Amino acid sequence: MASKKKKEAIDEGKSMEIRVSLFPDEVLERVLGFVKSHKDRSSVSLVCKDWYTAERWSRTHVFIGNCYSVSPEIVARRFPNIRSVTLKGKPRFSDFNLVPPNWGADIHSWLVVFASAYPFLEELRLKRMTVTDESLDFLARSFTGFKALSLVSCDGFSTDGLASIASYCRNLTELDIQESGIDDLGGSWLSYFPESFTSLETLNFANLNSEVNFDALEKLVSRCKSLKVLKVNRSITLEQLRRLLMRAPQLVELGTGSFSQDHLLRADAELEAAFNNCKSLHTLSGLWEVSSMYLPALYPACTNLIFLNLSYATLQSTELAKLLPNCPLLRRLWVLDTVEDKGLEAVASNCHFLEELRVFPADPFDQEGIPEGGGTGVTEFGFVAVSKGCPNLRYVLYFCRQMTNVAVATVVRNCPNFTHFRLCIMNMCEPDHITKDPMDEAFGAVVKTCKKLRRLAVSGLLTDRTFEYIGTYAKNLETLSVAFAGRSDRGMQSVLEGCPKLRKLEIRDCPFGNSALLSGLDRYESMRSLWMSACKVTINGCRLLARRMPRLNVEVIKEDDNDDTQAEKVYVYRSVAGPRRDAPPFVITM
Amino acid sequence: MPSPLEHDYIGFSSSSSNFEEEVEVEDLKGTELRLGLPGSESPERKPVVGLSLGLPKSSVSGLKRGFADTVDGSGGWIFSGGSGGGMENGKGGPLVSQKEENGGGTSGQDSKGHVLSAKAQVVGWPPIRSYRKSMMPTNLDKNKDGIEDKQSFGCVFVKVSMDGAPYLRKVDLKTYDNYKELSSALEKMFSCFTIGQCTSQGVQGKDGLSQSCLADLLHGSEYVLTYEDKDRDWMLVGDVPWDMFTNSCRRLRIMKGSDAIGLDLYNGIYLPAAPRVKEKSKNRNDLANQMQKPV
């Protein structure tokens, strides 16, 4: 009986196979064209050879989370029809100056390959990569149909490079250079957009300082009827903003310039009217130097706001409390800790649909006798208050100077749906400020309660217990950031052993050594990367890892000649491209 | 071999007296004051006077990292393995890598409850992105993109540190019209730190001392007023027209005259002879020679 069933199953399987392979390739490709997610496409490509082939021909967007995990030649060989590329470069800790300059992640070699393999490339989205003016110029000239350029946290270029883009990309729809640290040589680049150019939909130059030619900007905004996203820089005054808004009431995302004026505006009513026109706004940011006098002008535009980024606006709690009732649909809110706990209480009372909250410190390094704006930032009270009022919270980034285990446990009890929990107690190794215990139980509560947790950043005084909790409970964890924590190798080992979905692990200043590093031997190939700096790993440990796992790149960054045995900074990642060919002298591949 | 985390259970460094090591190099020109003209033989050095009487030398390590947070334009600190070389924008001199034992960071307060001396100084901590630091409206002086027209923002706050002073101050350059006004304001501001020098050794006291004592010190070339410009070079104050100065000055430092090697002084008006050499690297060597290493 059993064997008969088995035979039937096999027959059925065979005929299924035959049926499937009778699909003409074009149909298969067409169907697969609807599959957008990278993960799904990865799965599709593993089904069988036909599907692999169909997938590679039908893929138009490739996402590469670590630019050194693969080479441009390999990408070009596998995917012939790419129109859009997303690339990420440096390790995330480069944001905090832990990676020396000239480390790498230069886009140029990719562009050269793409210029011949993908002449019809339309989109390039880069994060933490080095892009030179020369590359931008090359890009602008090589891809005639180029549409979207997004450079997030990139470096290496100047406004001259932007001028090349403006001059040659006739079909440009998106130019977004947010948070890139570039050489600002002046605002003339904006004037290089030809008068016939009308296709722009997204323009974000908020990170620049120099004045652009306002006349050119105003004309550009007027003629680009499809403009949906406009994020200007600080040099744009309130009056200028008003004029821009009158030209572009259809904006969906707005980044204001400095929200203040040296002299009183002619009429507040005009400003309000301008904002009143913008009923489609769902994202608002900028607001540097925001003056409470003008803030109410914003209110009419806030009705449909989903995302409000006040993280550059030094608002006090009262101002926030007046603003928030105008934003009933808010789902994402970024604020400065100048709003204090009271401000967070206002968030709790008003933002019932809130899903994401980020609280940034206004003065993280200023520990002088004279704090800049006074005030103490936010504490555990604000955190708990928000959790009470906003049960849908799933993403939090919270910078504070004190916290308690009980408070965190309360927060996650109120909001069990966290997917991203990033708590930064700014004082290093700070214990529970009431009990003086380590903060282990806090993070224990997080991982026990939040089953969907994908990203976690820990801080405060932590023993290995925290990591044991993480290893035991955080089964969906993908990204973990650790600093100044743990007691022994056991900590890191618990995580590596216990978190099957871990993809990115970044550690600094922890007492984890070679045994911890080597305990992850089986894990690293299923991860994107591991970063360890100022830990107890030695060069020999790294060598051993490299020898045992040849498909990993084990790189040690060595910036000075002292102490040959310690591996100060270690970056481990899987790669099919072999060791880097462009490594600077301070990056040593084991 | 550095042991970055030799902190005990409650996170205090076992050797907080080594905090000196952790402080940004520029802050500590030794911790001693000297009298006399730069270049002349310095008499016996006197211990620095801290904010409270009777503090051990280590308390001076409460010096805020006067320049640390703009040395690389991004609040870079120095710490154990973090060599501080990670200048995202490739600007600025490298920070010193303190490879010696310097504890896990004295979080909270030291044993004397001195808030000032509390924080260890660490590259990239707290984890605030350089971009955010540079864009913060309250920290215009830290903006490494270099604001072209600071005037439009109405104020130009710069930090002022003084070698040997336990904390630094901020001034709004816009409130002064010329160098003289700035100079007298600074004299007033920092007089309390140097009054001690005018008294007999080691005793701090303000009684009977006038601010002219400081002025004498300043003009007597014991101290030199320098500033860091947009290009991160250290210049003598007085080089350039006042407006140009307020636009390019990012921070001020009242530096020991003897350390301003190669800079010329002339009756309190400082002549432009500032070398384009990064002061930091030179000073680091000085410091290395002067500082006492932990056992």
From TrEMBL, chain A:
Name a single GO biological process.
SCF-dependent proteasomal ubiquitin-dependent protein catabolic process
Q: InterPro entries attached here?
A: COI1_F-box, F-box-like_dom_sf, F-box_dom, Leu-rich_rpt, Leu-rich_rpt_Cys-con_subtyp, LRR_dom_sf, Transp_inhibit
Q: In which pathway does it act?
A: Protein modification; protein ubiquitination
Q: Where in the cell is it found?
A: Nucleus
The UniProt record lists the F-box domain at 23-64
Keyword hit for Lyase: no
Which keywords does UniProt give here? Auxin signaling pathway, Nucleus, Ubl conjugation pathway
Per the record, what is one GO cellular component? SCF ubiquitin ligase complex
What Gene3D superfamilies does UniProt report for this protein, alphabetically? 1.20.1280.50, Ribonuclease Inhibitor
Q: Name one GO molecular function term.
A: auxin binding
Which SMART domains did the record assign? FBOX, LRR_CC
| Nucleus found in the keyword field | yes
Q: How does it assemble?
A: Part of a SCF (SKP1-cullin-F-box) protein ligase complex. May interact with auxin and auxin-responsive proteins.
The protein's name in its UniProt record: Protein TRANSPORT INHIBITOR RESPONSE 1-like
Q: Look up and give the organism this protein is from.
A: Dioscorea cayennensis subsp. rotundata (White Guinea yam)
From TrEMBL, chain B:
Tell me where it resides. Answer: Nucleus
- What PROSITE patterns does UniProt report for this protein, alphabetically? PB1
Q: Tell me the Pfam families matching this sequence.
A: AUX_IAA (PF02309)
Q: Which SUPFAM superfamilies match?
A: CAD & PB1 domains
Q: Which GO terms describe its biological process?
A: auxin-activated signaling pathway; regulation of DNA-templated transcription
Primary place of residence? nucleus
Which cellular component, as a GO term, is one annotated location? Answer: nucleus
Q: Where is this region: Disordered?
A: 1-25, 81-113
Bias type Gly residues, positions: 81-93
What UniProt keywords apply to this chain's record, in alphabetical order?
A: Auxin signaling pathway, Nucleus, Repressor, Transcription, Transcription regulation
Q: Does the keyword Transcription apply?
A: yes
All copies of domain PB1, residue ranges: 155-257
Q: Which PANTHER family match?
A: AUXIN-RESPONSIVE PROTEIN IAA17
Record-stated family: Belongs to the Aux/IAA family.
Q: How does it assemble?
A: Homodimers and heterodimers.
Task of the protein: Aux/IAA proteins are short-lived transcriptional factors that function as repressors of early auxin response genes at low auxin concentrations.
User: Which named protein is this?
Assistant: Auxin-responsive protein
